[in-house]
Please model this.
Amino acid sequence: MASLKDLRNRITSVKSTQKITKAMKMVAASKLKRAQNAAEQARPYAQRMDKVMAALGQSVIGQPGSSPLLVGSGSDHTWLVVVATSERGLCGGFNTNIVRAAKRRIDSLLADGKDVKILCVGRKGRAQLRRFYGPRIIDVIDMSGMRSVGFADAAAIAERVRVMFDEGEFDVAIMFYARFQSALTQIATEQQLIPVPCPPLKTGRVI
Model:
């Protein structure tokens, strides 16, 4: 049976642990709030950029000398699928939902006779996809050493994709990522990168 001194030591240890976990919870809540604010502030800009790029793409359709980034290579045989996931787990269905959406699309492309190359951003995506498409994964971009990811990091990935396109390594590029809706809900989303998608515009003015 534990002595009174042992019980006091255990109580002190538990209280100390409670203080540490409470501090960690406060820090995590603060980081989550900053990330949520950043996502919400960037959303209007991203939505407007989508409209601007759609308008730009519409304006050059059929025009001689138009950039292949806007109008495509003239083929849709080889596809690059960029899958953006996290570096770590313990985040519910975050990674699984992204990979599941990407897998459905990849399987559909392969069934249609397309050639598919996969570029993973984040190790968790590669860990799940390599079981099905190992040889098709051309690389994984490891972000584990970064404390935070910013525009420069995204621009470096975009530049790599652009160079691959210029060198004729693929015809169409799409990306799968988690679109932020709330702290508890992120929606697995597919977005075409190259050529720029040109849906019919609802308005003639985007700027």
